[in-house]
Amino acid sequence: MQISAFTAGLNTFQSAVQRTERAAADIAQAALPHSSSTRDSADLATSMVQLDIGTLQAQAGAKLLQTADDVLGTLLDTHA
């Protein structure tokens, strides 16, 4: 099975979106009035970190897609 750079970039980006959505939902849940325990504060910190990781992961996926597109363009220019 061959995995292209486009597939890897797309999978990375989709994974980042899912991670970010989960983290955002957890943060929103922690903001509700009933959540005031210490455990919720720790969960909130973890969710904030996951949100940052998701952002970086999305940027990496986008960069991978851009690089794959540039390489494909170069290959097409070279063979044309």
Secondary-structure map:
Layout: H1 5-30, H2 38-79
Helix pairs in contact: 1-2
* Helix content percent band: over 70%
The DSSP helix count reads 2
Helix/strand structural class:
mainly alpha
Which ranges are low-confidence, i.e. pLDDT below 50, for 5 or more consecutive residues? none
Number of domains: 1
Shape: rod-shaped
Distance between the termini: 28 Å
Proportion of beta-strand residues: under 5%
**How many E strands?**
0
Helices and strands, in N-to-C order?
A: HH
What does this structure look like?
Helices cover 85% and strands 0% of the residues. With 80 residues, it is mostly helical. The protein has one domain (5-79).
Keywords:
80 residues, mainly alpha
In brief, what are we looking at here?
This protein has 80 residues and is mainly alpha-helical. It has helices spanning 5-30, 38-79.
